Amino acid sequence: MKEQSNLNKKLIAVSGVKGSGKDSVSSMLQYCLSVPKMFRQYFFYKSFKKWIKPKYKKIAFADPLKKMLSNLLNISLDKFYDRNFK
User: Fold this and answer.
1) Using CA atoms, how far apart are residues 82 and 1, in angstroms rounded to an integer?
2) Which of 5, 30, 75, 80 could crosslink 66 through cysteines, CB 3.0-4.6 Å?
């Protein structure tokens, strides 16, 4: 199997303020890009998103930074995703 080079990879960036729905949009995009066109309706998304294996990976920009700080400061990585701890 041939590995895909970095030049052929696609990137979709979603930005917005805290709580604006960036994760929701990225989950919907991940679903829509993984199913046939006839299943790209909100009803199907709500019903079948649990069973669909995504073709694309969702990565947050700050994930590598959070992992580094977690190791450096000896704080659980879960704390960086907890809104109350932030």
Assistant:
1) 39
2) 80
Radius of gyration from C-alpha coordinates of the chain: 16
Is residue 9 in some structural domain? no
H or E segment and range at residue 25: helix 22-32
| pLDDT at res. 72 | 95
CA angle (27 as vertex; 25, 32 as ends), nearest 5? 90
- The single-letter DSSP state of residue 32 is H
Nearest 5°: CA angle at 41, between 56 and 34? 20
- Domain hosting residue 65, numbered range: 59-86
Model pTM greater than 0.90?
no
How far from chain centre, in Å, is Cα 58?
3
